[in-house]
Write a structure and sequence with these properties.
The complex is a heterodimer.
Chain A: H1 7-15, H2 21-39, E1 42-45, H3 48-64, E2 74-78, H4 105-112, E3 116-121, H5 161-169, E4 174-179, H6 185-191, E5 194-197, E6 217-222, H7 225-235, E7 265-269, H8 279-294, E8 298-302, H9 310-325, H10 343-354, H11 357-370, H12 376-399, E9 402-406, H13 422-426, H14 433-438, E10 442-449, E11 455-462, H15 467-481
Parallel strand pairs in A: 2-3, 2-4, 7-8, 7-9
Antiparallel strand pairs in A: 1-3, 4-6, 5-6, 5-10, 9-11, 10-11
Helix pairs in contact in A: 2-3, 5-6, 7-15, 9-11, 9-12
Chain B: E1 4-7, E2 10-23, H1 62-74, E3 82-83, E4 86-89, E5 99-102, E6 112-117, E7 123-135, E8 139-141, E9 150-152, E10 159-165, H2 172-189, E11 201-210, E12 220-225, H3 228-247, E13 255-260, E14 265-271, E15 281-282, E16 289-290, H4 293-301, H5 307-318, H6 322-329, H7 332-342, H8 347-365, H9 376-387, H10 393-406, H11 410-417, H12 425-438, H13 440-447, H14 454-464, H15 471-482
Parallel strand pairs in B: 12-13
Antiparallel strand pairs in B: 1-2, 2-10, 2-11, 3-16, 4-5, 4-15, 6-7, 7-10, 8-9, 11-12, 13-14
The chains are: A alpha/beta, B alpha+beta.
GO biological process, one term (chain B): translation
Domain Asn/Gln amidotransferase (chain B): 336-482
Protein name (chain B): Aspartyl/glutamyl-tRNA(Asn/Gln) amidotransferase subunit B
Chain lengths: 495, 484
């Protein structure tokens, strides 16, 4: 049962010496051995001896009483975080051979808290995608299957699809994700786990490969809300190496879970009742409202009038930033290079071969919206709309403490669905993008299964730097929903 | 003074604006901790940020901001308490990020001005449009291998100030005067060493021509000119080229050009059609740069005295003539030398000695003021010997030559060579008597009204005393005895 534990349970079990960190690590490496060939959740699995050495060091600390918050807990790391001496690819061919000389701030903090990394999880190339089908190292399979249609391969969501699949299937107790427009929350919802996108600036971006700098934010992907709090505590905090990182103190997030939510005001944004929203999602949302009302929350109707512009705005700003952020992948200093007789030729061949189609699409879109004559109409206007979207949230939070919405407009879809229609694919982010644009924290909590047996998630959005209230409400929702399902493909399925 | 090109169709004036890139003096780069030292082994001063490794982020160097603000203050310019960094996007092998971080829309320094001085002492104000901070690029080495180019990133990320002038310049000499004055101010401030031959100061020159009273015509930008002389030459040559095009019924194209001093021509580097679309946008890795007025005030209070102020003070405090004061403040080290000499002494005497004997000695020995064979203190001591009557001005010149030669102190030289001035009136009287006896005829002429002969007697007495007699006492004694 070691691969079914929560972080909190595993930490307690280790502390009580019910099992060793070595046992825990071995169980996970074993699960990866068996399931990763099918799920493709990991791009790189760390060498067994390294993982076991880290576990042994953790055991030593438990033995001498110096165990830290995440001591001995097996964690997967999205392959967008640079890890010293461990290949870091961003799921791109262009970085297929890149081994960083440095450890990202977030992963360094997790290591400092005692985490045992087991591998680098798969993702959409450069975190661009909502289905984890753009990875240069192959798609990730969702461990969940439709009831009665087990043959259809489902996507885990994206871009942190490998992390979500790994946590759901028992290949890690928890994993790091990054969220730019929904890349933690949507895969968490698709895979029946908890995913938290913290406030922009809560976690340092240093050493995390950039997609869209003004939106990218690292966060935890876990099995419970309390675990998300515990792990965020280890990841977050001021970093002088990231100018956009906040110097606010890091609260004891885990303690926020279980706190009474009585009297909290929960806003239901009218604009999220989008036409075409599936009745099942709608019903699940109503159920969530009822649970929170029962827990003593006051339900308030609110309006976020600029919601409808969120997706269009996002798909201007994020590609604009990515077109510039990805310019450094030119084949000159690191990564893959394709030689050519001229410098421009090197750029053209290297980037044409190194980047996949989705990344190229976004670079082209971003280059276009920043170009002379179009800047004002696209980028500048999008920035103005972004300000309005942010203001919507600030004004809503004058009336309510949190907002409750669905995380995604559907449950996990099949590989191949939506694949030929990028706009349809982009619509997956419709509920997650506005919070990203505003920079506010948002949490996805699994609350139930649809008729086909696939998990559904609800999203709780809070004020800037008020992850605590978000976690409290998330905890209440989790308790009411009592989601205890595991996917068909699980390390201990049938065991 | 005006610079006019006489063409077939009439007179043309030139319109010039300069964009000067000045490397900020700082220990580390604009957004990284790597060293900025000149002349290091290739790629020995490169951080992961400068090489644009994945996930690396820029962090602004506070000292570079302070240097930019100091420079703005030195240019009497508006300091913008809020400014912003933008990305200028283009691909090149010396630009690891694929963009240069610069300040496009909101520079840290706004309008200011520089007063330039032209031949004949005429002065003019040249407007400063703005000053902004930006990163320098790396350097490509094409001469290391027959088929490949190498990249040296030591310079990548070093802080530059781009100082943009208004199109106020109307003559090549004015451009030269502007650059010299700007360099002087930067050096006084300690914000840029101004060494154009090391590339730490370089200029882009915008040139157009027009007939009197016309609005501006199309301009060309001559990139990266690396000496003041070349800037002046490039303006002359480019203006002549443009006049010829207009006068032959042609049209000057707005383009970027290169100056080739060897061939004495400018030629096209990039036409307008090939101009880059830099896709500027605010750098999302950096917050807007917000500084406090209080901090700016503190920097202002700590600024060194600038050349114009120093010149005025030298005139007023030491009675130095306007022209000489300009010579003294041209370089801070000279001004400091002078002030050490002049402090508490006769300023006029000090300036005569510094710009006269000292400068010619430096010239002769090929030394600079920094390693002058005579220190400011020693020269001062020598002036003291003149002032207290130990030696007279004539002997002082000999003493000074000895000082240049031997490096010995003036009193030691005076002592050793027995050059002490004769102030014993008995000795002087005796000499006067002897001369008067020897030249009784001249005495008679003098007494009959030929007072011009007085100088002759002075000379003879000085000769008699080997130049050591105190000239004032000689005068007194002669006057008394001749007029008796």
């Amino acid at each position: 049962m070691l691969t079914r534990l929560t972080l909190t349970e595993a930490r307690a079990g280790l502390a009580a010496r019910k099992f060793s960190a070595r046992d825990l690590a071995k169980a996970h490496l074993d699960a990866i051995d068996r399931l990763n060939p099918k799920l493709n959740a990991y791009i790189t699995v760390l060498p067994e001896k390294d993982v076991l050495a880290a576990a042994d060091a953790a055991d030593a600390r438990y033995a001498n009483g110096t165990a830290r918050a995440m001591e001995g807990l097996p964690v997967g790391v999205k392959d967008l975080f640079c890890t010293k001496g461990v290949k870091t690819t961003a799921a791109s061919k262009i970085l297929a051979n890149f081994i960083p000389l440095y450890e990202s701030t977030v992963t360094a903090r997790l290591l400092d808290a005692g985490s045992v990394f087991v591998g680098k999880t798969n993702l959409d190339e450069f975190a661009m995608g909502s289905a984890n089908i753009t990875s240069a190292f192959g798609s990730v399979l969702n461990p969940w299957q439709r009831k009665g249609d087990e043959a259809t391969a489902l996507v885990p969501g994206g871009s942190s699809g490998g992390s979500a699949a790994a946590v759901a299937a028992g290949l890690a107790l928890a994993a790091t994700g990054t969220d730019t427009g929904g890349s933690i929350r949507q895969p968490a919802a698709f895979c029946g786990i908890v995913g938290l996108k913290p406030t922009y600036g809560r976690c340092s971006r240093w050493g995390t490969i950039a997609y869209a700098s003004s939106l990218d934010q690292a966060g935890p992907m876990t099995r419970t809300v309390a675990d998300a709090g515990l792990m965020l505590e280890a990841m977050a905090g001021f970093d002088e190496k990231d100018s956009t990182c906040s110097n606010r103190p890091v609260p004891a997030f885990a303690q926020a879970v279980g706190k009474s939510v009585k009297g909290l005001r929960v806003g239901i944004p009218a604009e999220y009742r989008a036409p075409g929203l599936s009745p099942e999602i709608s019903a699940m949302w109503e159920q969530g409202i009822a649970w929170l009302r029962d827990a003593g929350c006051e339900i308030v109707d609110v309006s976020l009038p600029h919601t409808k512009y969120g997706l269009a705005t996002y798909y201007i700003i994020a590609p604009a930033e990515c077109s510039s952020n990805l310019a450094r992948y030119d084949g000159i200093r690191f990564g893959v290079r394709k030689d050519a007789p001229t410098l421009d030729g090197v750029y053209e061949l290297t980037r044409a071969e190194g980047f996949g189609e989705e990344v190229r699409n976004r670079i082209l879109m971003g280059t276009y919206v920043l170009s002379a004559g179009y800047y004002d109409a696209y980028y500048l206007k999008a920035q103005k709309v972004r300000t309005l979207i942010k203001r919507d949230f600030v004004q809503a939070f004058e009336q309510v403490d949190v907002l409750l919405t669905p995380t995604a407009p559907s449950a996990a879809f099949a590989q191949g669905e939506n694949a030929d229609d990028p706009v349809q694919m982009y619509l997956n982010d419709i509920f997650t993008v506005p919070a990203s644009m505003a920079g506010v924290p948002a949490l996805s909590v699994p609350v139930g299964l649809d008729a086909k047996g696939l998990p559904l998630g609800l999203q709780i959005i809070g004020r800037h730097f008020d992850e605590e209230t978000v976690l409290s409400v998330g905890g209440a929702l989790e308790a009411a929903a009592g989601f205890a399902h595991t996917p068909t493909l699980h390390a201990e399925a049938g065991a | 003074m005006s610079y006019i090109i006489e063409g077939k169709t009439g007179s043309w004036e030139i319109v010039v604006g300069l964009e000067v890139h000045a490397q900020i003096i700082s220990h580390s780069k604009l957004f990284s901790g790597a060293s900025t030292k000149f002349g290091g082994e290739p790629n020995s001063q490169v951080s992961l940020v400068d090489a644009a490794f994945p996930g690396m982020l820029p962090v602004i160097n506070r000292e570079c901001v302070a240097q930019a603000v100091r420079t703005g203050l030195g240019l009497n310019a508006r300091i913008n308490l809020q400014s912003r960094f933008d990305r200028k996007n283009y691909f090149y092998a010396d630009l690891p990020q694929g963009y240069q971080i610069s300040q496009f829309e909101h520079p840290i320094v706004g309008e200011g001005s520089i007063e330039i001085e032209l031949a004949g002492g005429e002065t003019r104000q040249i407007g400063i449009t703005r000053l902004h901070m930006e990163q320098d690029a790396g350097k490509l080495l094409h001469d290391q291998d027959p088929t490949r180019s190498f990249v040296d990133l030591n310079r990548s990320g070093v802080a530059l100030m781009e100082i943009v002038s208004e199109p106020d310049i109307r003559a090549p000499e004015e451009a030269g005067a502007y650059l010299r004055k700007l360099r002087q101010i930067l050096r006084y401030l300690g914000t840029c060493d101004g060494n154009m031959d090391e590339g730490s100061m370089r200029a882009d020159v915008n040139v157009s021509v027009r007939k009197a009273g016309e609005p501006f015509r199309t301009r060309c930008e001559i990139k990266n000119v690396n000496s003041i002389r070349f800037v002046m030459q490039a303006i002359e040559i480019e203006a002549a080229r443009q006049v010829e095009i207009w006068e032959n019924g042609g049209e000057v194209d707005q383009e970027t050009r290169l100056f080739d001093p060897g061939r004495g021509e400018t030629r096209t580097m990039r036409s307008k059609e090939d101009a880059h679309d830099y896709r500027y946008f605010p750098d999302p890795d950096l917050l807007p740069l917000v500084i406090e007025q209080e901090w700016v005030d503190g920097l202002k209070a700590a600024l060194p005295e600038l050349p114009d102020a120093k010149r005025a003070r030298f005139q007023q405090q030491y009675g130095v003539p306007f022209y000489d004061a300009g010579v003294l403040v041209a370089e801070q080290s000279v001004a400091d030398f002078f002030e050490t000499v002049a402090k508490g002494r006769d300023g006029k005497l000090a300036v005569t000695w510094v710009t006269g004997e000292l400068f010619s000695a430096l010239n002769r020995t090929g030394r600079t003021i920094e390693n002058s064979p005579v220190s400011a203190d020693a020269l001062g001591k020598m002036l003291d010997l003149i002032a207290d009557g130990t030696i007279n001005g004539k002997i002082a010149k000999d003493v000074f030559e000895d000082m240049v030669e031997t490096g010995e102190s003036p009193d030691a030289i005076v002592e050793k060579k027995g050059l002490k001035q004769v102030t014993d009136t008995g000795v002087i009287d005796a000499a006067v008597d002897a001369i008067m006896a020897k030249h009784a005829d001249k005495v008679a002429e003098y007494r009959s009204g030929k007072d011009k002969l007085f100088g002759f007697f002075v000379g003879q007495v000085m000769k008699e005393t080997k130049g050591k007699a105190n000239p004032a006492l000689v005068n007194d004694a002669l006057k008394a005895k001749l007029d008796a």
